[in-house]
Structures are given as C-alpha cells and as structure tokens.
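Entry for the shared binder. Reason: the reviewer on the internal report wants the predicted structure included alongside the sequence.
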Amino acid sequence: MYEEYWGLLEKPFMNTPDSKYLYFSKQHEEALTRMLYTITEDKGAMLFTGEYGCGKTLMTRALLEQLDPERFDIAVLPHPNLKPLELLYEILYQFGYEAPKHLNKTDLIHLLNDCLLANKAKGRSTIIMVDEAQMVTDPLTLEEIRLLLNFQQEKNFLITLILIGQPELKDTIEELPQLGQRLAVKYHLNHLTKEETKNYIRHRLEVAGAQHELFTSRAEDVLVVASEGIPRVLNNIADMSLMVGYGQKSPIIDDRIVSKVVKDIEA
C-alpha cells in the first residue's frame, strides 16, 4: 500500500523468514559459523537458543540456503512436541519414507538406520533440525532425541542434530545432563545492540529498494528503545510507522510518528 509513496520495491519490515533481509550482526555471523562448523566438521549436535523474536528461524533459513541439496539430506521439525513414535515417523516422512502405521519402535529405528547408512553410502550427510525445541515437554521424547546421536559409525556420526529454541530450552537441557553433554557446540543469540538495531533498520530499507533515508536519527532512537533490540517487535513498529507516515503524506518518518505508533501498539 505504501511502497510506491516511499520509493520501495516491497515492504521492508515484514515478519516473514525471507533470508535476503537477514542482517548479519557479529553475533548472527557467529551463530551461522557455529552451525556450519557443527555440520561440516561432524561435531554431532548443537544447541542454538535465542531471545523471542531475535531471528532464529531466519538464521536457519540462511543456513539451509548454504547447504548443497546434493550433499545434505535435511529434516526440519517445526512442531516437535510429539510422542517418541510420532517423532520417528515424522523424521522418516521428511526423509521420504512412508512408514506403515503399525510399526513398533524397533522397526522404525531399523528403517531410520537403513536410511542413514544409504545416505552415507551415497556420500550424503543427514541433518535433523528441531525448531522450537522448548515445546518438547515429554521426557521420553527428549530421551528419543538424545538417542538419535547413537546412530554413528566408529569415527563418524550418522546424524547431525541441531536443537533450536527460546531461552527456556537451556534450562531444560541443564536438567538433562545426559543430553547436554552430547551437545558439542552451543550458542545463544541476544537482542541487538543500539548500533546493530540502527544498522538493521537501514539494511532492511536498502534491501527493499530505498534510495534515501526514510527514518530520522531521532526516529531510529525511539525504535531502539521501544523495540529493545528485538527484530520482530521493531518490524511491527517500523512497518506501522511507514503506514502512518504515508497516511499523513509525511516526507520522512520522524520521532513523533514512531512515538505515536508505539503508544497505539501499547494501548
């Protein structure tokens, strides 16, 4: 609606996992490096946590885009709060196996093992990414996730497991040392700093085609404080600010417009 008015090709602050809008702060670069290291160096498993709305899903999309589909077989579990058998069925399904519903756990494990060995024989690596892993509440399912790391050969893991979740996932892992000790790599993604937040705003506008600055420096300051460096919150405020500015036919988004949007959202 407002794109043409602001000289944009598309809306810059949508809360969708479009990897071209990913702003690589130092900590985002570090997170991606650690995930790639876990996968390429056969480290077995990684724990990747982050504050709510900080871009974990966007980071995983960026990771997937860097992995050659000819070399990697990847299962992404976005809704992992499953029973142990359901978990195994879902993993097999994502790897292209329509397992009959009457199979028991032993049968499913044999099928998964055959799948992993077949991938290995083809020179392909197998990755399982468990998104929103803090949703897993069944201790038996957590134990099943741990046991996935038992699929290994003498010198190699047959699976690389990446657990992704909100901060409370760290607490869950701490209560399960038998799982925590097997997570060779860990990283936590924090809120953006003031400087990172301002760079994030400018990066998104540039990607969307902005030819000049659309937010005043004081407007950016209000966004920094109001969003607390959380990209998802910032996106909501910035998007509505562009909408309000368009409605008012303002030549630029100033702190008055952003402050009004913040008050409206809080109300």
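Summary line for the report: Residues 48 and 164 are 5 Å apart (CA to CA).
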